[in-house]
Amino acid sequence: MGILAYLQRIGRSLMVPVAVLPAAAILLGVGYWIDPDGWGANNIIAAFLIKSGGAIIDNMPILFAIGVAYGMSKDKDGAAALSGLVGFLVITTLLSTGSVSLLTNTPVADVSPAFGKINNQFVGILVGVISAELYNRFSQVELHKALAFFSGKRLVPIIVSFVMLFVAFVLLYVWPVIYDALVAFGEYIKNLGAYGAGIYGFFNRLLIPVGLHHALNSVFWFDVAGINDIPNFLGGQKSINDGLAVIGITGRYQAGFFPIMMFGLPGAALAMYHTAKAANKDKTASIMMAAAFAAFFTGVTEPLEFSFMFVAPQLYLLHAFLTGISLYIAATMQWIAGFGFSAGLIDMVLSSRNPLAVHWYMLIVQGIAFFFIYYVTFRFVIVKFNLKTPGREDDGDDVVRSDAETSLTAADDVDSLAQKYIAVVGGKDNLTNIDACITRLRLSVKDSSLVSEAQAKALGAMAVIKLGKEGVQIVVGQQAERVADEMKKLV
């Protein structure tokens, strides 16, 4: 497996622990709504909700260890998640300040501050990756009959606990160096202020086609380089009291996404509809309306972005640039809102009573401006360069299908759709791994040349991305995980 494909595996596994953030956002958001002044001090129900949401945020490192181990395991088994938990507990206990002091015969005051921060998402990800690899390697091992009870999956947590002893020994010397480098990087980005937020926004969008934006997000949104923007924002008053959050600053790596996802991309959708050929207006309208609705309410933008990402890369580069501008403006003006899932209306409403959400309503004003900016610039570029966005395809671009291929459009349910996607990718024999994120099937195959892009699009796929000889991603929309689950059962 190439390094890019491996990084993508890590990136998609990060979505497992991130998926619990909406629960924290809802609990905290409702708590702040009930008691916007005391943040739990004046209302027992608000305190209950805020404490419950805080429990998730405070334990994100261990959730990363468990989630990444589970997400990268070959069969998504609970034994892999348990191994991640075991590994994380061993590492963080052995490398705590007190343990390091004892192991190195060093006074506690002289122990590197790096070990006071050993309980963080970076270590959680590292432990999760190692635990998953050990699970994939040893979960089928059979021991002698006398030790048969510990064979297979039961063996993995035991192996992980011993391997973590060696990992801890290595980290005893390496972790301070890594920590100092991460802190230096985090401080550098922080010192760039609004410019740093803009640069991040640009590359966040630019990495989506290859699925590496999740890895980039972890640096800014979580405690990988000391930024930890989402947990610190969701922590609200507690984060402020603990000195982890600054009003007007914390949340700047999130706020600028709201104008783009809620307003900018729907403006782009309207431009693509207005520039579509008259004969294709109805079809284009249905696609664009559904995608724009998802972007506005939930912040899920992939269905809309993939509709023009590959057919009009100039537009996608423009989109990435405008995203960077939006994050820069929001950070400069200190118009702040945050999210637990994505930058849609639901998260904006939930975060509006958070004490760290300042002038959040101005993001709506900024968003209206970006709606017109996207509409005007997208429409101009599409017409000027005659880009083949949805509804503007040449007549000759339509795929000529055989009767067998035409029948692919009659997907009645997820089960039949899964069967047809297996056929699209070259059959069961060509598949080596099946996974999914929110909107994409992420597949490993023996030969990507056997994957039929035309048949995939006949099934309703928005895009097919071939990553070398063995990697394929198919953008199928919100049903991606259900389709992937059914494909696994069939294979």
UniProtKB/TrEMBL annotation:
Membrane topology (UniProt): Multi-pass membrane protein
Record-annotated PTS EIIB type-1 domain positions: 415-491
InterPro entries recorded: Glu_permease_IIB, PTrfase_EIIB_Cys, PTS_EIIC, PTS_EIIC_1, PTS_Glucose_EIICBA, PTS_IIB_1, PTS_IIBC_nag
Active-site residue numbers: 437 (phosphocysteine intermediate)
Keywords from the UniProt entry: Cell membrane, Kinase, Membrane, Phosphotransferase system, Sugar transport, Transferase, Transmembrane, Transmembrane helix, Transport
Regions crossing the membrane: 12-34, 46-72, 79-98, 155-175, 181-203, 255-273, 285-304, 316-337, 357-382
Taxonomic superkingdom: Bacteria
Subcellular location: Cell membrane
Ranges of residues in domain PTS EIIC type-1: 1-394
PROSITE patterns, sorted: PTS_EIIB_TYPE_1 (PS51098), PTS_EIIB_TYPE_1_CYS (PS01035), PTS_EIIC_TYPE_1 (PS51103)
Name of protein: N-acetylglucosamine-specific PTS transporter subunit IIBC
